[in-house]
Amino acid sequence: MPDTKTNDQETEVETPVVKKVDDKKPEVESEKNAEDGKTGDKKDGKDDSDKVNSSEQPDDSESNDKSESGAEDCNDNKEETNNKENDEKENEDETFAHMSNQESKRQRVCSLLKALVTPKEISRIVGVSIKTVYNVKNRMTMSKTITRMSGSGGMNKKRTKAFIKALKSKILKDSTKSMRKMAIELEVDNKTIRNAIKYDLRLKSQEYQNTC
């Protein structure tokens, strides 16, 4: 009998201990779950914040690509404008050189015509066509700036009444003007102005006699 009681007491003592242990386990598990939930929420919050920050921050690679492309476009435009300017300058230089060459040839033809060289010979010397020589010759005869050759004799056809009148009006307006300027304005030679002043207007002013 005494043994049974002790066994019963032992069983009765042991059962509440098991209950206490069993009661603590769910509490511990619930606390762990709560902590895991908090950590999970924190992790989710961090992930969401990282996503938001990543969406808000601009893509540096895209902006760099755009800036580089814009710089390349600007450089291409500058190169195109520089090339166009260089081409225009080259064209201007070529046209100027061509015009100066043609003008020098015309002057050469004029000098040879004044030297009474035949058009055929002038064409061979200068390297132009005979038609060009005759065109220059016709312009020389029709041009108002062409004066008679020195030593050819006879009165200069430029010293007409209208010419003398125009020369006299210029002298009255400005008596200090040189013969050279008046010759340029009236499109004649300096000698023509000098002879007109001396023989036609009969002026003996030292200002006009000594001016060239």
Automatic annotation (TrEMBL):
Could you tell me which Gene3D superfamilies the record lists for this protein?
Answer: Homeodomain-like
Q: Ranges of Basic and acidic residues compositional bias?
A: 17-53, 63-87
Domain of life the protein comes from = Eukaryota
Annotated segments matching region Disordered: 1-105
Q: Supply the name of the protein.
A: Nuclear localization sequence-binding protein-like
Q: Which organism is this entry from?
A: Octopus vulgaris
Highest classification ranks of the organism: Eukaryota, Metazoa, Spiralia, Lophotrochozoa, Mollusca
